Input
Amino acid sequence: MRYITPRKAAAGLGSARSGTAHHWQMTVSSYALVILTPLFMIAVGGAIGLPQDAVAAHFGRPFPGIITALFIVVGMIHFIKGTRIMIDDYVYGSANKLAIIASNIFGWGVIAAAIFALAKMAFTTPAI
Amino acid sequence: MADVNRGNRPLSPHLQVYRLPLPAITSIMTRITGHALVAGILLLVWWLVAAVSSPGAFAAADWLVRSWLGFLILTASAWALWFHALSGIRHLFYDQGLGLEIEEAKKASWAIIIGSVALTLLSLIIFFIS
Ligand code: HEM
Ligand code: HEM
Output
């Protein structure tokens, strides 16, 4: 006979077997994105349509550069965790694992590309 | 295992013959907009990388961004972002146990639809006057 109660057996374990960490990460990134979204739209909206050197100078400034970097990093981590929800709903077995790996490679690739471009703009824009 | 009630549970509707209620439409739209947002982000990151690559690369990205297709993608992305943000905020309320009654869910669905369109128009106005 098992002395463990059904509640104890289930506590902390969602259907993903890893507790509530995933949901908590979605929650934290959601709160961050609520604040970042309007700031990001202002930061990027101001640069669309500008010539190349003006675009680089725009994102070389602290506010547009930092907000855009934060939005892409937090947004893409939220995206990777978000696609995980959909992958777990619709894809099973090894295809499930491959899809999660592909989603991570894609998401971190986008983050790396964005940070590279923003860093290059920040470091090549003369200070004032 | 605990007792499983097999006879008295709600059944999943057959999607082909089920007229989706409004909260179901906004629910699935949350998923669709969340994933579709990656298109706008890809365009933005391509444009950023092109700006530090070469004049030719930038000209290509800039051409798409300023074309009517680019305008469509960016406007659709702005709407998807506002829609997903508002319905995401609704999920944060759900997590607190708020807004789960059917009537509240219907009202919140309308607020998300109307609010996302209004915020998109506001974004476009701010973009074009500044
Ligand atoms: C203000 C901004 C945002 C908020 C408040 C927000 C909030 C949320 C929340 C609460 C969820 C979980 C929904 C659930 O429990 O089923 C979610 C899911 C998701 N989000 Fe966001 N999000 C935001 C921005 C973004 C962005 C920028 C992206 C894309 C890069 C994104 C992509 C996703 C995806 C793919 C999912 C999974 C949807 C699913 O399949 O169920 N979100 N979001
Ligand atoms: C973003 C969109 C949606 C997501 C992420 C989602 C996800 C889920 C999840 C995770 C469950 C729980 C399954 C379980 O406990 O085993 C569920 C149950 C359910 N969903 Fe959805 N769903 C979505 C949209 C919809 C729509 C549009 C409909 C209606 C056409 C729907 C109808 C149902 C029903 C009836 C159940 C209860 C099934 C049962 O308890 O036997 N869902 N959904």
Notes: The domain at 20-124 of chain A is CATH 1.20.1300 (3 helical TM bundles of succinate and fumarate reductases).
